Amino acid sequence: MRAANVYAADCPTRQILDRVGDKWAVLILILLRNDPLRFNQLRRAIEGISQKMLSQVLKSLERDGLVRRRAIATVPVTVEYSITPLGLTLAAAVDPLRDWAEQHLKEVTAAQRRYDAQQQSKAA
């Protein structure tokens, strides 16, 4: 196996970084860190995610070994999602990014406003 080189177009590590860069995946992993949740619990907790998108992201996370899906024999069937030990390591790695975003939201928003104002004055 060839050594990982994230800058190479065909490097599989890019797929993993895509998962880390997916806002929905990050939010799901952080939510599942504490307790297993059912599909609708996740959907209610994450504002703005569609049912289709949640389903797609959960399947991807399960495929990557980050989330475990468990069907519970009820009528109708209940499906519960939990984070795997591997998923916990990724959640621990991305949680500081969430902290950073929350701590620096005002600064980033101010920078965006300044930039937008500069662009508007250039266009005028």
From TrEMBL:
Keywords noted in UniProt: DNA-binding, Transcription, Transcription regulation
SUPFAM superfamilies: Winged helix' DNA-binding domain
Protein name per Swiss-Prot or TrEMBL: MarR family transcriptional regulator
One Pfam family here: HxlR
Keyword Transcription: yes
The keyword Transcription appears for this protein: yes
Organism in which the protein naturally occurs: Bradyrhizobium oligotrophicum S58
A biological-process GO annotation: regulation of DNA-templated transcription
InterPro entries named in the record: ArsR-like_HTH, HTH_HxlR, WH-like_DNA-bd_sf, WH_DNA-bd_sf
Xref: PANTHER family: HTH-TYPE TRANSCRIPTIONAL REGULATOR YODB, TRANSCRIPTIONAL REGULATOR, MARR FAMILY
Coiled coil: none
HTH hxlR-type domain ranges (all copies): 11-109
Gene Ontology MF annotations: DNA binding
